[in-house]
Amino acid sequence: MTGKEDLGLSLSLSFPHSHHLNLTPSSANTCSSPSGVPLQKASWNDVVSPPPYPSSGYFPATEARTFLRGIDVNRLPSTVDGAEEAGVSSPNSTISSVSEKRSEREANGGIIDDEDGDTSRKKLRLSKDQSAILEESFKEHNTLNPKQKLALANQLGLQPRQVEVWFQNRRARTKLKQTEVDCEFLKRWCEKLTEENKRLQKEVVELRALKRSPLLYMQMAPPTTLTMCPSCVRLSVPPTVDQRSHHLAQTYHRPIPIRPLAHGLCEGLRPRS
DNA sequence: AAGGGCACGCGCGTTACTTCA
DNA sequence: ATTGAAGTAACGCGCGTGCCC
Fold first, then answer.
1. InterPro entries under this entry (predicted)?
2. What's the pTM?
3. pLDDT of A115
4. pLDDT per residue as tens digits for the range A60-90
């Protein structure tokens, strides 16, 4: 594995789904990004659906076997079908789960010995095929239940702990990448809004100037940006803003819901009864 | 029913190691 | 051959959750 392409990390500023920029998470346990890509369990709003999470058949076994042909499993070939058996491990991972690791830590007084008595970690490099299979699996679901973890570990000839660690690191990488993308998106969005604000302020100044000279004011064309809200018949957010936001959203391949906010402004202008 | 202990999984930050320019 | 940066496997810790007693 050499680059981000191999990791499937090519997150871009294009947003294929109709996510709305709703900055109010709909539930307490939401975890997503402004760009609407669900990171872990939930999303920014209910419109955003998580990727399909198949309840069974989490990994196509035949494809896996095809992948596994000629695979370097960093271990003795006879152990591929029974990685969880005692004494079978990759060089740097002798324990299959965090809890077991913790137990062992406690038992050894914090010192972990391997066969060589060497306490330094020997880093394993996953083979291309192993990484590819893990990637495929991650695409289908970014977390594993214990059964899935064990099955995948068996398929790859790795310790369940290694699969677990790989998924944890992979989630972290995804999140980091998404954060970068979101930062870039928000930066550009902010720039656009600043531009828009400047333009509108300029327009206000011009309109005020025109208003001060009645003759010109009477002759001028109807306002191009100010209009009436059709629902509450009050001065509303200019449709051009909406159009521009639509254009902006199209630029980023993602619609931004200015309209609800605009209507909220109208609501704010409604006389209190 | 409430609460403590335990196991477990996850996120996060970090470390140690590998690879490559 | 050396070196620094980037990538990543592995680790340690804290926290939340579910289960059991």
1. HD, HD-ZIP_Homeobox_LZ_Class_II, HD-ZIP_N, Homeobox_CS, Homeodomain-like_sf, HTH_motif, Leu_zip_homeo
2. 0.55
3. 42
4. 333 333 333 333 333 333 333 333 333 333 3
A102, closest nucleotide (Cα–C1') = C12
Closest Cα partner for A163 from A187, A137, A194? A137
pLDDT at A189 over 80: yes
**A262 CA, C14 C1': Å apart:** 43
Sign of CA dihedral A256, A262, A265, A267: negative
**CATH 1.10.10.60 domain range(s) in chain A:** 53-176
Residue A84 dihedral angles phi and psi, to the nearest 5°: -85, -5
Could you confirm whether domain A53-176 is CATH 2.30.30.110?
no
Instruction: Show which positions of strand C are touched by protein (CB under 7 A).
Output: 7-14, 17
